[in-house]
Known about the structure:
4-stranded antiparallel beta sheet, 2 domains, alpha+beta, globular, Ferritin, binds 2-acetamido-2-deoxy-beta-D-glucopyranose, Immunoglobulin-like
Amino acid sequence: MKTSAAIAFTLFGIATANPIVTSSKYKRADLAGLDFEIINLARNLESLELNYWNQGLANFTDDDFNNAGYQGFRQYLELFRDQEIAHFTVLNEAAGGGFKNCTYKFPVTTPYDLLSVGQVVTTVGEGAFIGGVANLTSSPARLTGASILGNEARQNSLLRQYLGLDYFNAVNFDTPLTASQAYSLAEPFLDCPSSNPPINFHLIPPLMANFTSGATPHSAGDEITVMWESSKVYLGNDVHITFLADMYSIPCPLTQSGDGMGTVTLPKGINGTSVLVATNFNGGGPIPDKQNFAIGYVVVA
Ligand SMILES: *[C@@H]1O[C@H](CO)[C@@H](O)[C@H](O)[C@H]1NC(C)=O
Ligand SMILES: *[C@@H]1O[C@H](CO)[C@@H](O)[C@H](O)[C@H]1NC(C)=O
Ligand SMILES: *[C@@H]1O[C@H](CO)[C@@H](O)[C@H](O)[C@H]1NC(C)=O
Ligand SMILES: *[C@@H]1O[C@H](CO)[C@@H](O)[C@H](O)[C@H]1NC(C)=O
Ligand SMILES: *[C@@H]1O[C@H](CO)[C@@H](O)[C@H](O)[C@H]1NC(C)=O
C-alpha cells in the first residue's frame, strides 16, 4: 500500500511538473476553424471575468462587504481574480496572443450588485465552456475547457451561497450554451478594440425578463414578464419562450401583451439561473443560431 501510494504520488508530481495545458500540441497552429473561434470566445469571456473581479477589488473594501452582510467575501474576490488570470493566460497563449483588453462596463454600484451580476456572469461562463467542450475537436483544448468549467462552477456556487440562492444552480445537470448564446449574453458588457480577433458568432438581441409574481425561490406557475426591442427582434411564426435547463429545454407559450412585451409562466423543473430564448424551434437539440430571436435570463432560485 505504502509503495503504491508513494508511486502514485511521484507520478502525480511528474504530471503536475508538465501541465498538459501548456502542451506544444495546444498552440494556435493546431487551433483552426471552429476550435480557434471557440477558444477566442473563451479567452474573451475569461478576460471579462478577470476585469470584473479586478473592478470589484478596486471598488469595494473588506468593510464594504462585511457591512453589506457578505462577511469575509473579499478574500474570495482575490482568489477569483487569481483564478481568472490563470484561465485567461492559458487560453490567450493557446489562441496565439494578439489580444488587448476591451472596455468592460457592468451594472454594478453595490456589493450586492457585484455578487448578483457575478453569479450570472459565472453561470454564463460555465455554460459557454460546457457548450464549447461539446464542439472542440482538439483534445488538449477540450481538457483545458473542462478543467476551467469545474472551477467556474465552484465560483458560482460560492456566490450563490453568499446570496442565499440554491448553490447547486440547475437541478441535476448544468446548462450548456451554444457559442452564440454565450457571446450574446456577454456582449452588452464588452467594447473591444478592432485590433482583437473578432468574435465570429451570431449576435442574438436581448430579452429582458423579470418575475412579476412570487418571490425567490420561485415556484412553477409564477409569472415572468418579458420585454424586447421590437425593431430589433424578429419573432417568426409560433414563437414561444424556451427555458434552457439541464440536458433538456422546456418550451412555454408566450402571451404577447403589447409591442415588445409579453408574459410567460415558469414551468416545473427549472431551478437556479435559467436562460430564456424567444424562438419558434421545436427540435430536440440546441436551438439553431438564427432561430434564437432574443435571449435573456431569470434567477429562479
Ligand atoms: C487586462 O486588464 C487587467 C486588469 O483588469 C490586467 O490584469 C491584465 O493584465 C490586462 N490584460 C491584458 C492582455 O492587457
Ligand atoms: C466599479 O466602479 C465603477 C465606477 O463607479 C463602475 O463604473 C463599475 O461598473 C464598477 N464595477 C464593478 C465590477 O464593481
Ligand atoms: C455546437 O454544436 C451544436 C450541435 O451539437 C450546434 O447546434 C451548435 O451551434 C454548435 N456550434 C457552436 C459554435 O456552439
Ligand atoms: C429585470 O431583468 C433584468 C435582466 O433581464 C435585470 O437586469 C433587471 O435588473 C430586472 N429589473 C427588475 C426591476 O427586477
Ligand atoms: C430547486 O431546488 C431545490 C432543491 O435544491 C428544491 O427544493 C426546489 O423545489 C427547486 N425549485 C424548483 C422551482 O424546482
